[in-house]
Amino acid sequence: MIQLQNITKQVPDSNGNLDVLKSIDLSISSGEFLSIMGPSGSGKSTLLNILGLLDEPTSGQYLFEGTDVRKLSGRSLAQFRNSKIGFVFQSFMLIPRLSVRENIEVPMLYTRCGLKERKRRAEKALEQVGLIHKAKEPVINLSGGQKQKVAIARSIINEPDLLLADEPSGNLDAASKEDILRIFESLNQMGKTIVMVTHDPEVAQIGKRILTLKNGEWSATPAFAKTEVTG
Ligand SMILES: Nc1ncnc2c1ncn2[C@@H]1O[C@H](COP(=O)(O)OP(=O)(O)OP(=O)(O)O)[C@@H](O)[C@H]1O
Ligand SMILES: [Mg+2]
Questions:
Q1: How do residues 122-143 score in pLDDT, each as one tens digit?
Q2: CA of 117 to the centre of ligand 2 (A)
Q3: Pocket test for ligand 1, best of 10, 11, 217 (most atoms within 8 A of CB)
Q4: What number does the ligand 1 atom closest to the CA of 47 have?
Q5: End-to-end CA distance of the chain, in Å?
Q6: Which of 43, 132, 207, 229 could form a disulfide linkage to 216, CB 3.0–4.6 angstroms apart?
Q7: What atom in ligand 1 is closest to the CA of residue 199?
Q8: What are the tens digits of pLDDT across the range 60-96?
Q9: Are 122 and 111 in contact (CB under 8 A)?
Q10: Any coiled-coil ranges, and where (predicted)?
Q11: Ligand nearest to the CA of residue 57, numbered in listed order
Q12: Which residues are paired to 197 by β-bridges?
């Protein structure tokens, strides 16, 4: 599904250039559940944002279902991203005063999706996260765990092939964390490909494969990982 080859990312800093990612290779098959771990500053979010077409690498190749996505730009890039990739962030990124339903419908505004189809998808997504009863509630009234469920519903609303999650349980208590992880697990069982970034070894364990970044490079996977893989 996804092939990254020799991906680098450099950003300017006070001493010249900082190598945030150094020659990253990565293949992801359809249906995988991949966890990416690593210390703060190791480049996890940068890599996830590149995977999600939110950021551009400095060099390297990125194929997504055979499409050379580095050649896309402007509207075609936005369309590709909106239809194929869903995002979940640590800080939810919801619009506080809009209802649950309105929030999850946002990504559909940029598609040619009719009213009936919108309704069908919204109901299906809310059912998948168990929040149908909160559809009309402004998200400002929800708990952290509920907000993250709304964010997950929004991430799947356009029925993307790939879900990207950056520390999705980072702001949640233990019970909500469990809930959120179970939802990701069930989405994966239904065929969604998932890439999740986390500091938390316990959270990483729900992935079927665990990779670790250190200083912008793949490093040997620590002993607690269930699959031993290096990049
Ligand atoms: N646009 C940018 N401009 C300057 N520096 C950047 C930029 N993007 C990332 N960096 C730097 O790149 C490094 C990696 O950042 P990144 O956010 O990918 O780390 P991370 O592994 O996600 O860390 P955390 O676990 O704290 O979220 C950091 O040193 C960061 O300061
Ligand atoms: Mg990060």
A1: 999 999 999 999 999 999 999 9
A2: 35
A3: 11
A4: 18
A5: 16
A6: 43
A7: 25
A8: 999 999 999 999 999 999 999 999 999 999 999 999 9
A9: no
A10: none
A11: 1
A12: 36, 166
Tell me if 15 is assigned to some domain. no
Which residue's structure tokens are 């996830």?
A: 48
Question: Could you tell me the two tokens for 15?
Answer: 């001493």
Q: 18 in a domain, yes or no?
A: no
Total domain count, the chain? 1
Entry field: residues in the chain: 231
Query: Does residue 223 carry a pLDDT above 50?
Result: no
Amino acid identity, residue 53? L
Contact predicate 226/209, CB 8 Å? no
Tell me whether residue 197 is in a domain.
Answer: yes
